[in-house]
Design brief:
single chain, 432 residues, alpha/beta, 19 helices, globular
């Protein structure tokens, strides 16, 4: 550990010393991390740490050797990644902080905007020392919860990648083979469409194959009902272009995209299989399975979003804010603005927003609430966000109490409390 000379800054850092605790701030990077440390005696040190299991283990061991009975508390600007995974292998407490929080904290110390890794490491240490009481240490979920979370997020990334490739495929087909789009697949990444384009990457290739081979192909992929219609469409279609350069290059591009789509389709199905197999074994499965409209993938995402630590959120509002569903209110004097919350994890926000949309067709009161929001002039997205806000109160309560959701019981409560939704849900009672 590299010792720092006795300067004014050194004395200020030493003032952050805590009994029986080693405080460390790390400004992490890809290969080399800058760190700043103060031990229980007030000794200040700093240095750089290479991103390797061996170097990290030796660094932690050297700290323990100098402070054998002290707790090691480390603060950094991430809650995941290689460094976090390595640190959690040792008996240390990790405090992840939001990069925006440190950016604003840095501005309060350096108005000019200058920064360096070494200075950031010291500021992170300072941030930890000053706000340790309000920071939450990183608590790992159970292996099953973490696996469901990783599978759900990775699957989502694959789906988004598939959407991007599908859009690129559609755009490319428009430039040289628009007749393929007239086949009207439910999705551009549909297995039959991908297999068709891998076999017939151009209109010329399809027409040269002839009606018999095309008909046989559509029969083979289970599209018998529309086979004749599609065969006639392809055989009678006029080419958009006869330029051999355009056709050959675009055909190769389409084949490449379709090969990737075929691989993605297989991978996503494997993710679906694993999620379906694992989610039913989780302790919170009965709770998430009780929410109307939540199928396997959404159930896994809810479990990942909630986690295992029921003390993670102090109340419903903190839960709604953390996921980004709760709006942000800005007030100054007589002015007041309400806007969407962007400082949140996108995956969590998507989870509850999308669940709200799924619940509309499966839950009477959710549909009535959504329709009332639309009637009040809200956009569909704003109406779903408002519905998600309402759902999250219910989800949080069920999760905290360990109880399953009862739709009939909730609707009866709406009626008992005189909710405006009761008029739509129980029209007969209103007439009576």
């Amino acid at each position: 550990m590299k010792r720092k000379s006795n300067t004014t800054q050194n004395r200020e850092d030493a003032a952050h010393a805590m009994p029986n605790t080693v405080l460390i701030g790390i400004d992490w990077a890809d290969k080399v991390h800058a760190w700043h440390c103060v031990d229980p005696a007030g000794n200040v040190s700093h240095g750089e740490l290479e991103q390797s299991p061996k170097e990290i283990a030796l660094w932690i061991a050297s700290i323990r050797q100098q402070c054998p009975d002290a707790r090691i508390e480390i603060c950094l600007e991430t809650s995941r990644g290689a460094l976090v995974n390595a640190l959690l292998e040792h008996d240390v407490t990790v405090y992840p902080i939001n990069p925006n929080a440190l950016a604003n904290y840095r501005k309060s110390h350096a108005h000019g905007g200058g920064k360096s890794d070494r200075v950031d490491a010291r500021l992170i240490l300072q941030f930890l020392a000053e706000r340790r009481g309000s920071l939450r240490p990183l608590v790992q979920n159970s292996p099953l919860t973490r696996k469901l979370a990783a599978l759900s997020q990775d699957r989502r990334q694959l789906v988004e990648h598939r959407v991007d490739l599908s859009n690129e495929l559609k755009s490319t087909l428009k430039t040289y083979f628009p007749a393929a789009l007239e086949l009207k697949p439910a999705k551009m990444y549909a297995d039959f469409m991908v297999a068709f384009l891998l076999k017939f990457a151009s209109l010329d290739a399809a027409q040269k194959a002839g009606a018999t081979k095309l008909r046989k192909y559509f029969f083979g992929v289970g599209a018998k009902a529309k086979a004749q219609e599609r065969v006639e469409l392809l055989c009678e279609a006029n080419p958009l272009t006869t330029d051999p350069v355009v056709i050959s290059t675009c055909s190769l591009k389409v084949e490449s995209i379709c090969a990737m789509l075929a691989a993605l389709n297989r991978s996503i199905r494997e993710y679906d299989r694993l999620l379906q197999e694992l989610v039913v074994t989780h302790g919170d499965y009965p709770i998430v399975a009780s929410f109307p409209g939540a199928a396997t993938k959404m159930q896994a995402r809810m479990i990942a979003a909630l986690g295992d630590d029921r003390a993670r959120y102090t109340d419903t509002v903190s839960f709604q804010c953390a996921t980004g569903i709760a709006p942000v209110t800005t007030q100054s004097g007589n002015q007041k603005f309400v806007s969407s919350r962007w400082a949140c994890t996108k995956f969590l926000k998507q989870t509850f927003h999308e669940y709200a949309g799924l619940s509309i067709s499966r839950c009477c009161w959710a549909k009535a609430f959504y329709e009332s929001q639309i009637a009040a002039g809200k956009t569909p997205q704003a109406a779903k966000r408002a519905l998600a806000y309402k759902w999250m109160r219910i989800i949080f309560r069920c999760w905290q109490d360990g109880t399953c959701y009862d739709d009939q019981k909730y609707m009866q409560r709406l009626r008992k409390n005189g909710s405006h939704l009761a008029d739509k849900l129980f029209p007969a009672a209103k007439v009576a």
